[in-house]
UniProtKB/TrEMBL annotation:
Domain IF140/IFT172/WDR19 TPR: start-end pairs: 217-558
Species lineage: Eukaryota, Metazoa, Ecdysozoa, Arthropoda, Chelicerata
Gene Ontology cellular component terms for the protein in this record: cilium; intraciliary transport particle A
GO biological process terms on file: cilium assembly; intracellular protein localization; intraciliary retrograde transport
Listed name of the protein: WD repeat-containing protein 19
Subcellular location, principal: cytoplasm
Protein location: Cytoplasm, Cytoskeleton, Cilium basal body
Species this protein is from: Oppiella nova
Keyword line: Cell projection, Cilium, Cilium biogenesis/degradation, Cytoplasm, Cytoskeleton, Repeat, TPR repeat, WD repeat
UniProt-listed Pfam families: TPR_IF140-IFT172 (PF24762), Zf_2nd_IFT121 (PF23145)
Keyword Transcription regulation applies: no
Domain IFT121-like zinc finger per the UniProt entry, residue ranges: 661-707
Length: 725
């Protein structure tokens, strides 16, 4: 401000005092300053020159003020006008005096209310409008509560309450009255508590328990005043169960905590509760709480140390996969001297070295090894398996050393030990060779395969081993041709020993496997299977009562007696009987004569001996005559390849030189017009015959599985059967 301006401003004040308003206007214009104009405006209002004041405020574009002044223009009463003008220039006490001496003293009350000056408003209301006292008191109370004057706030809330006796004087509607009184009661609750009258506060809040916000507010106040029991109660009522449980815990009201427990989803509280219960020695409740808090280690500890329930502890550890818990259980079992369980839990807690040492010192390496084997992912454990292998090697247990060297990935070393074990002990041979073959199949290592083959064929110790091992080796290496050759040798051995079922199953299985691998089945294998299968069909046809069928099969088998060395006499005896029954007299007599030769005669079953002797004696050598025809030779059916006539029991066509597949029901060669296949094994059969054979019991004579008879139909596509031969 320049000196000149200051001088002019002082001049303005002086001129205003002299009410020289025209000069004042000029000075204000000169100063062009809003404060100067405001000074001028106030002077005009003081002078109650509303006209001038309006002009001034319009000039400085204070439209709010202009509007207010426009309204006052209508007021004619001097004091009332003066009151409003004083109010608008912030001279409230003067305004109040003027209003009170005017015809509208309530303006004073309204002014104080607008100014939120509740104390003054209250004083005025007592004189001017007693029915407003409650509302003003409530407003005043809110203000006082806000500023922290709780005692006065409480006092005013109390005054605000409108009781039944005051109903006649109130101007409030029913709804407004209700919400007014509720606000007062809420205020009383809060401030009574703050002022130390908690009983009264809680009593009021109980009346308003539907107001969860208020209940929680009061709970918070009590909480901050460290009145935890009451706070907890109110938190519980407000639905804040966590805080309630927390405070109940603080005041050690555990009954309440356990009541609330189901509703609380806070691990920390659950854990605290559990600890408190444990301190009290209530272990069962503590365990429940630890479970909720998912503190598995404590659960396990309590089950083991206090509740004597290792079963539950074990269950928890298995489910929770708690490593520390497993360690705890391992220690527990060690104390009980139950070393195998201890080892198991040491493994579970990933303490493999400890488990190994314990297994070694307590001589329980097998248990340790088996537990490790149960682990799904034992690739990571190869070092552990190696330790086990070394242990067994030191113990001179070749079988186990070999097994675990293989599992640890050292196949060559492992197989060496396994073959050693197989050579040393007949008892271990099967398992050792099985493991060695498995290892060869896994590793596909040429040297390992050679080592095993040399051992099996007796190259290493001069003792050839059972062919089934060689067969198994070839099969697991998928060397099907070699497997087939071996299978033939084994089947021959089985057949020689009279184990026809084994031989049949082996050859059948091998045929199926070769077909699956799309490898042609060698004719020697087909023949062997056909012959052994014919043998198995005999008793089925006897059972059906078709003696012609059984006789023809017996003729075939009897003509290959060298393949059934264990049953020569019974086969010949049956052949004699069945051929008799079928009316094939020449064949019957031929077999009877063979039986009467010295070497077999004494072995004939006594039941039949006499009859066969009589048969041979009566014939008097008649059978030796040439040109004697037999009914058995007479039946011809067509070759499915070339339609040439071929004797039904023959399996190759002398014209087209094809070998013809045999029927699994009769052993005869198949015929195009009456053809089917087993829906399970796909071996062919003459439809009319097989239906007769299995009418009582629908089981395939080849693969031994039950057949759905509805699937047995005349085969249209006979070519597929011929092609697959
Ligand atoms: Zn032919
Ligand atoms: Zn079948």
């Amino acid at each position: 401000m320049t000196d000149k301006t200051r001088l002019k401003t002082e001049l303005l004040r002086d001129i205003l005092k002299l009410r020289r308003f025209q000069d004042s206007w000029k000075i204000c214009e000169y100063l062009n300053d809003s404060e100067a104009w405001d000074l001028f405006g106030k002077a005009a209002i003081n002078d109650m020159d509303i006209e001038l004041a309006t002009r001034i405020y319009r000039h400085v574009q204070n439209s709010g003020f202009v509007n207010a002044l426009e309204k006052l223009k209508l007021i004619e009463e001097r004091n009332l006008l003066a009151g409003h003008l004083a109010n608008s220039s912030n001279r409230y006490d003067l305004a109040q005096t003027l209003f009170l001496s005017s015809s509208q003293p309530l303006e004073a009350l309204e002014m104080r209310q607008n100014l939120l000056q509740w104390s003054e408003a209250l004083t005025l209301a007592k004189r001017l409008a007693p029915n407003q006292i409650p509302i003003i008191s409530r407003e005043y109370a809110v203000q006082l509560e806000f500023t922290g004057d709780y005692t006065s706030a409480l006092d005013n809330y109390e005054k605000g309450l409108i009781g039944d006796e005051d109903l006649s004087t109130t101007s409030l509607s029913e709804d407004d009255l209700k919400s007014h009184n509720e606000l007062c009661k809420a205020g009383i609750s809060r401030n009574a508590i703050r002022c130390g009258n908690t009983r009264r506060g809680i009593e009021f809040v109980s009346q308003l328990s539907h107001n969860k916000v208020l209940v929680e507010e009061c709970a918070t106040i009590l909480d901050s005043m460290k009145l935890y029991s009451d706070a907890a109660l109110l938190y519980e009522k407000s639905g804040n169960y966590e805080r309630a449980a927390n405070l109940y815990m603080k005041v050690k009201n555990f009954n309440k905590v356990s009541d609330l427990f189901e509703k609380v989803d806070n691990k920390e509280i659950q854990s605290q509760y559990a600890k408190a219960k444990e301190m009290e020695g209530k272990y069962r409740e503590a365990v429940k709480a630890y479970i909720k808090a998912e503190e598995w280690l404590d659960v396990v500890r309590l089950y083991l140390d206090y509740l004597n329930n290792p079963g539950e502890a074990v269950k928890i550890v298995r489910e929770s996969k708690s490593i520390e818990g497993a360690k705890m259980i391992a220690k527990f079992f060690q104390k009980l001297n139950d070393m195998s369980s201890a080892i198991e839990f040491l493994v579970m807690s990933k303490c493999h070295d400890e488990a190994y040492r314990l297994a070694q010192s307590t001589n329980q390496m097998d248990i340790y090894a088996n537990i490790l084997l149960d682990y799904a992912d034992n690739h990571e454990l190869s070092q552990d398996f190696l330790s086990i292998a070394i242990h067994y090697e030191q113990e001179r247990d070749a079988l186990r050393a070999g097994k675990f060297y293989c599992i640890a990935g050292q196949n060559k070393k492992g197989v060496k030990f396994l073959l050693q074990a197989a050579a040393l002990s007949n008892e271990d041979q099967n398992q050792a060779l099985h493991l060695a073959i498995e290892s060869a199949a896994d590793s596909k290592d040429e040297q390992i395969i050679r080592m095993i083959i040399d051992f099996l064929i007796g190259e290493t110790d001069g003792v050839p081993k059972d062919f089934k091992y060689l067969f198994r080796l070839y099969m697991s290496l998928k060397y099907y041709r070699e497997a087939a050759k071996t299978a033939l040798i084994i089947a021959r051995e089985e057949q020689n020993a009279g184990n026809y079922r084994n031989a049949h199953d082996l050859l059948f299985g091998m045929c199926q496997e070769l077909k699956r691998q799309k490898i042609t089945v060698p004719s020697e294998m087909v023949n062997s299977l056909m012959l052994i299968h014919s043998y198995t069909l005999i008793k089925l046809w006897i059972r059906v009562g078709d003696h012609m069928r059984s006789a023809k099969l017996l003729i075939r088998v009897a003509n290959n007696l060298s393949r059934f060395p264990e049953h020569i006499v019974p086969i010949l005896t049956s052949a004699v009987i069945e051929c008799q029954r079928a009316g094939l007299k020449r064949e019957s007599l031929e077999f009877a004569t063979t039986l009467m030769k010295g070497e077999y005669r004494d072995q004939i079953d006594l039941k039949f001996k006499k009859k066969i002797e009589t048969l041979v004696r009566k014939s008097g050598g008649a059978h030796l005559r040439t040109g004697d025809t037999s009914d058995a030779d007479l039946i011809h059916t067509l070759c499915p390849y070339c339609d040439n006539e071929v004797i039904d029991t023959e399996l190759s066509c002398h014209k087209c030189r094809n070998s013809i597949p045999f029927c699994i029901a009769t052993g005869l060669h198949i015929i195009k017009e009456d053809l089917t296949v087993c829906p399970n094994c796909h071996f062919p059969a003459i439809l009319s015959h097989i239906l007769r054979l299995i009418s009582n019991e629908p089981i395939c004579p080849m693969c031994n599985t039950t057949i759905d008879l509805t699937q047995m139909a005349q085969l249209e596509d006979f070519q597929s059967v011929l092609d697959s031969n």
